[in-house]
Design brief:
CATH topology of one domain: Multidrug efflux transporter AcrB transmembrane fold
CATH superfamily of one domain: Multidrug efflux transporter AcrB transmembrane domain
Strand content: 5-15%
Shape: elongated
Helix content: 40-55%
CATH architecture of one domain: Up-down Bundle
Distance between the termini: 50 Å
Number of helices: 21
Amino acid sequence: MSRPDPKAKNRLRRIVLDASEETIGPRSLSMLCILAVFVPSFFMTGAAKALFLPLSLAVGFAMIASYLLSSTLVPILSIWWHRDPRSSRNPSPAVSEGQRSRSAVSWLFLPSLATRHLLVPVYLAGSLFAISLIVPFLGTEIFPQIDAGQLQLRLRAPTATRLETTEQIAQRVLTIIGEEAPIATSMGLVGVHAPNYPVNLIHQWNSGPEEATLQIQLKEGSPPIAALREKLRARFVAEFPNVLFSFEPADIVSRVMALGSPTPIEVAVSGKDFAVSRAHAEMLRLKLNELKDLRDVQFSQTLDYPSVDVNIDRERAGLLGVKMSDATRSLVAATASSRFTVPNYYADPKTGQSMSLQVQVPQSLMKGLEDLRNLPISAADGAAVPLRNIAKISEGNVIGQYDRYNMSRTVSIIANLHDQPLGSIAKQVEKVIADHPAPVGVNVALRGQVPPMKELQSGLQTGLLIAIVTIFLLLVANFQSLRLALIVLTTLPAALLGVVLALKLTGTTVNIQSFMGAIMAVGVAVANAILLVTFAHRAQLSGMTKRDAALDSATTRLRPILMTSLAMIAGMIPMALAKSQTSPLAIATIGGLALATVATLLVLPAVYALLASKTAKVASLEPTDD
């Protein structure tokens, strides 16, 4: 058995060491530039930071680990597993396989180099013009809308509707939904929680007995949610013309990003004079109802809730021996529960469990005003005096619910989206608000998912700009040349154009996921450009002209650039085809990286041959370096 040749082993070690030393500069700079893309996430605020920072940390640590392994483990494995290239059957050093492959593909780059004076200006101007042309037609939102087969429906019957009637309406609505799509699971809450229910009302809010909330999970194979909602709205209007319906966000992400609003769009009108605020809100509601892309436009509060006015004649009550405290205590027990006025708890001495003790007249005994008029009130002598003997009882209307924001009473208009992304509809709503100025002392604010969307966009745009500036400073520090730094950045227009083209062709919106994909595409595109420009500059230092250096760099770096880009694109394809919430990230990355790779290989050599200095200089500041 033959033993390995020590000289061949040493030659292989020298080759691996030379390769590591040759690429450590571009690899280090590429890693720093990719990290620089994600550094601005640490300075973001609000939802942008909460959503983007985990991805930044994951990619950043992965890049650092990859760099360390490529500098330590990969060279060792190369020595262990590779054989000495001189031991092959074709040991001729004149023409190696790599040289033959480079000669075979050099024709790809000759046309772009020959037409560089025309190609480079057309590329830069055309890319920027196309980006400015496409971007206004891209929809914007926070997260991509995903059909999870879930529905959350809130219905509001006419005020003064009894709980039993509201329950019948809710059951009929559930039947209609089941006729249009198969239901897997459904939950519903009709009216408000009973006073003896231990959970606070805030966990599931209904404003009164005329309101109900339904949560529904559909079975596999159900119709698309958007089309199903439209069909259900048509049937509900036909069968329940006096009932208001609103399809609220069913997934947890949309609920959280609405910041407490029941729908994606909420217009809050507030001021010192509630009557003036209500009048202006009514006018805005009518105008918003005319927008074809809004659905379920309505007030979130009940503004005409029926009330019972009880005016007690104090003099007559005093003559009959009835105290005001006794009368109010009896009224509370008859119309609600003593739980809300006199909290009373009893601790079981055996189990230690706390129990709420409350007094309430059964609702079945209070069916109308006549029952209330006959309500017995305790007198001083122990006799019972009917309420009709000491009070006048009449019907009226009051505001069913007062919402306050910064201590100002607010009237809120809520609405759902239809057939358009959040950003497009938000612009229409803002135009309606701007075209109808509020009276003096009245403030109109657009809430829901619009403020967090604008905050996210602002944070991500600022982060992308900071990342580009940081990359530029790193490139200038590395190359000691503004020209070479600008040459590397000429791949960015292609990357951004690829992102917007991919989003437009697939009908994808600009959201947090697609923005992440754009930033990742920019980072990898810059890394590839650094690799090519570094080797072109090195070739020019060896005595080549800048045109020949660009051609040599393009041919020698073709394989690693293609391997890097194709590997990332291949990894993103399953995510893009999954049609999940992360699909826009993959689509943006694939589009940006694909076009940036083409520009890096075909356009960047022409840019280098056109803009680089005729005489290359060493970037080192060491006095002993020539």
